[in-house]
């Protein structure tokens, strides 16, 4: 079963339009949602959760079309949204007691284990936590009621490299169960490159593409040559380009490049940055 299915989903504001978005997240997989600030990542997650209503399109979550009519399905979703999602006056210990009254599947033992693993002081109030500690507490809550779907907005933000690496291992272990899936947005593209099976690129509300991570690496490459050689490439080959006094570089579609061209692999981060620059230069 697909954990998520979005078809033609659109949301319009006076100065911004998101969509239409088409995205499918199969069970047992992780999709990374990449985009600059204001691209529409947080709005997409809020639409999935029913916090915002879409103007058009359909959203299906864990096999259900209407989350409001399916409270049991809501309990199967673990959520970390950017911004404070926990009352600032509560301690980690108090948060555990509150959540036990909210989630039927709340597991106090699992929560205590995460608090210990993340070194969260039990008696310290949330508003006294550092940014990284706040994120750790939100993650502990999201993972402690046995969710099937995780929706994570900038979940690695504020965490040091060691903890980020530990979190990636934790999330990879979560999706070993084919009934589990993760949709995660992040500015730290290197984290998503380690974690994700598929990558979705959002730019100014438009979904530029959503493809398997390895397929993206196979389809695109960095081309190197001179400015005159760059001019000889067909327009449909070049996605984005840069010319300097030392030569020319372009993001290209690998299969369309003439034989004998000098190509190097492109990282997911380079791919996104160059695609956005290509949009800006169009």
From TrEMBL:
Keyword annotations: ATP-binding, Nucleotide-binding, Transport
SMART domains attached to this UniProt entry: AAA
Domain ABC transporter: 1-229
UniProt-listed Gene3D superfamilies: P-loop containing nucleotide triphosphate hydrolases
InterPro entries for the chain: AAA+_ATPase, ABC_transporter-like_ATP-bd, ABC_Transporter_VariousFunc, P-loop_NTPase
Alphabetical list of Pfam families matching this protein: ABC_tran
GO MF annotation terms: ATP binding; ATP hydrolysis activity
Organism: Faecalibacterium prausnitzii
Protein name: ABC transporter
